[in-house]
Amino acid sequence: MDGRAEFLRSTPSLVLAVALGAALAGCDMGGPLDDTGQPLAWVNAEKLTSADLRFTGPLDEPDERRKVIDRGIDDLLVAREARRRGLGYTEQAVRKIVAVRRAAQVRERRILRDVLYEVVASEVEIGEAELRGEFERLQASIRRRRVTLRSQTFPSREAAEQALQTPGTAFEVVGPLLIRELPAALRKAAKSLNSVGERSVVPTGGTWSSIELIAEQIVTPPAFENARDALQERLRERKAGEAFDRELERLRQAAEIRLEPGVLENDALWPVGTSSAAQP
After folding, report:
1. Tens of pLDDT, residues 6-28
2. How far is CA 274 from the centre of its chain?
3. Considering only CA atoms, which of 26, 232, 274 is closest in space to residue 126?
4. DSSP code at position 141
5. Beta strand pairing call for 46-48 and 208-219
6. Three-state DSSP state, 2
7. Residue 56: its pLDDT value, please?
8. Per-residue pLDDT for 241 more than 90?
9. R_g over Cα of the chain
């Protein structure tokens, strides 16, 4: 199907029409998205509403508003004249209009995807027992030790051990950090230090490090009632995502999906040269 046939085959929805008007005007769309249809001006029998105008930022003064309306009137008049001359069906115009409509369709689909996700999320139910179960499951992962260490690296084990016994040796203070936030070479040794003042010497990739636990704090989870809202939101987001994935899988299973031969290998169809992740 050529571009003109695609352009003529259907009347665009309101979303597509608004996006088309903005793109053809060559300016970013502004103004309220929830257009009520309230007329702002009339050109012959055709009305202009806020959805037909292009502007950014507030319009506090009547003169500013009049300028915006006048631009909308001018756009309508020149578009009408271009159509009268048959310019809307030239190859150049059709190609651009079809591209704008396709882009608007992509945006419309993403908007509808978000709306469907919100509907699915609103249907998620979370019982008290489920919420408390989630709290208990997270307690162990929330409870952590935050430690502060003295650490220094030496060329040999003997030098590292000697440094721990020598007053005035310069040490670097590491922390306070959770165990999992420590440098990888220090984590295992830090776990074995159970009380303030305990020391250890550990190999660190060809060198040796002396470490001493100088402070610790046990990070405990909040009470259930204090964590309820955050837990509920966390659980709702996870369950909503799972429910949406199930719904999407159902839709895919019910649809007849077919890729064109060679579409993945044809570089002419894709931007190449840089690696980028697919957009969700």
Report:
1. 333 333 333 333 333 444 343 34
2. 21
3. 232
4. H
5. unpaired
6. coil
7. 66
8. yes
9. 32
- The Cβ of residue 45 has, within 10 Å, a number of other Cβ atoms equal to 5
CA neighbours closer than 13 Å in the CB half-sphere of residue 244: 16
Where would I find the beta strands (DSSP E) of 23-67?
41-43, 46-48
- pLDDT 10s digits, 153-193: 899 989 888 888 888 788 889 888 888 888 888 888 888 88
For residue 183, what is the DSSP state? -
Nearest alpha-carbon partner for 204 in 181, 188, 191, 192: 188
Question: Would you call the peptide bond into 176 cis, given omega within 30 degrees of 0 as the criterion?
Answer: yes
3-class DSSP assignment, residue 86:
coil
Q: Which residue has the tokens 């919420």?
A: 131
Burial class for 232, CB neighbours closer than 10 Å (0-12, 13-18, 19+): middle
Q: Is the dihedral of CA 36, 41, 46, 50 positive or negative?
A: negative
- Helical (H) or strand (E) element with 202: strand 199-203
Angle at 201 between CA 198 and CA 204, to 5 degrees: 135
